[in-house]
């Protein structure tokens, strides 16, 4: 198994491209190029959500194993994220969890005593 862990500083949106680059390196030998691109997109979405919708640090963990990829972003905000259908007036905002729901093989939110973890999984199959 291969792992990636990153501490994300509060409100540091520069972390998004840095995390994408680190994930790309982690997945370089995965052999699933279409799935790797999807993984980068979905990781960007859940990292951005944690940084924009909380006022705390967050922790990213990505694990590649024989069954596929699991990415989790844990933050320390007690509010549960809402999956919603954005309206046309919102531009490109509000679509992150909808993308995760649509493209991930599995996803969810696990509440902790302090905060939550938003996660998704991609199996090792073809895109």
From TrEMBL:
<dbReference type="InterPro" id="IPR036890">
    <property type="entry name" value="HATPase_C_sf"/>
</dbReference>
<protein>
    <submittedName>
        <fullName>ATP-binding protein</fullName>
    </submittedName>
</protein>
<keyword id="KW-0418">Kinase</keyword>
<dbReference type="GO" id="GO:0005524">
    <property type="term" value="F:ATP binding"/>
</dbReference>
<dbReference type="InterPro" id="IPR050267">
    <property type="entry name" value="Anti-sigma-factor_SerPK"/>
</dbReference>
<keyword id="KW-0808">Transferase</keyword>
<dbReference type="InterPro" id="IPR003594">
    <property type="entry name" value="HATPase_dom"/>
</dbReference>
<feature type="domain" description="Histidine kinase/HSP90-like ATPase">
    <location>
        <begin position="12"/>
        <end position="120"/>
    </location>
</feature>
<keyword id="KW-0723">Serine/threonine-protein kinase</keyword>
<keyword id="KW-0547">Nucleotide-binding</keyword>
<dbReference type="Pfam" id="PF13581">
    <property type="entry name" value="HATPase_c_2"/>
</dbReference>
<keyword id="KW-0067">ATP-binding</keyword>
